[in-house]
Amino acid sequence: MNINIEQINSELRTKTPSEIIQWAIEFAKNPVVTTNFRPYEVAILHATNTVKPDLKVIWCDTGYNTPQTYKHAEIIIKQLDLNIHLYVPKQTTAHRDVVLGIPHVDEPKHKLFTEQVKLEPFRRAMAEHQPDLWFTNLRKGQTAFRNSIDIVSQGADGIIKVSPFYYWSDEELDAYLIEHNLPNELKYFDPTKQLENRECGLHA
């Protein structure tokens, strides 16, 4: 899919998330939104769901979420009536805890761990759904890589990535959640990152 990324970002810079999503939905043939139900994820799920209620929502669950995250996910899925497509690692968490555990990010086995719990399920999801456009809740200021992209970017795989809330702050998202009566949950754990400003592996 060939588009002028720079020109599109210039045009979308002053648009609202809803307007950005509307543009993307009209542009795309097979869009999806991905989620891990981390803090503030409900914003992108609500915004995309409002424009396209039947949008496919791909949830790649590492198996290491907190009890609070799982409860939060169930509340959001029900409240928004999400079209959820769940993907999990091929090995159970209990089995992996015995043979591998959760390696520190500096350990050689961390790469294998990330492949098992995050990258393989994600590739499987993308291969099955073959999206041409991918909604995410990436925001400027989260990681060095994310600072280098914009509202619209394109990966090496050709998939267009759209981040409608790219320039929004936590405070602006808090206001959005209050306005739309949406819950948030801050007790979240990503076993592949361990540090908040570390890239998760799906986007870089």
From TrEMBL:
Pathway in which the depicted protein is active: Sulfur metabolism; hydrogen sulfide biosynthesis; sulfite from sulfate
Taxonomic path: Bacteria, Pseudomonadati, Bacteroidota, Flavobacteriia, Flavobacteriales
Span of domain Phosphoadenosine phosphosulphate reductase: 31-183
Similarity comment: family membership: Belongs to the PAPS reductase family. CysH subfamily.
GO cellular component: cytoplasm
Gene source species: Gelidibacter sediminis
Name of the protein in its database record: Phosphoadenylylsulfate reductase (Thioredoxin)
GO biological process: sulfate assimilation, phosphoadenylyl sulfate reduction by phosphoadenylyl-sulfate reductase (thioredoxin)
Matching Pfam families: PAPS_reduct
Recorded GO MF terms: phosphoadenylyl-sulfate reductase (thioredoxin) activity
InterPro entries: PAPS_reduct_dom, Rossmann-like_a/b/a_fold
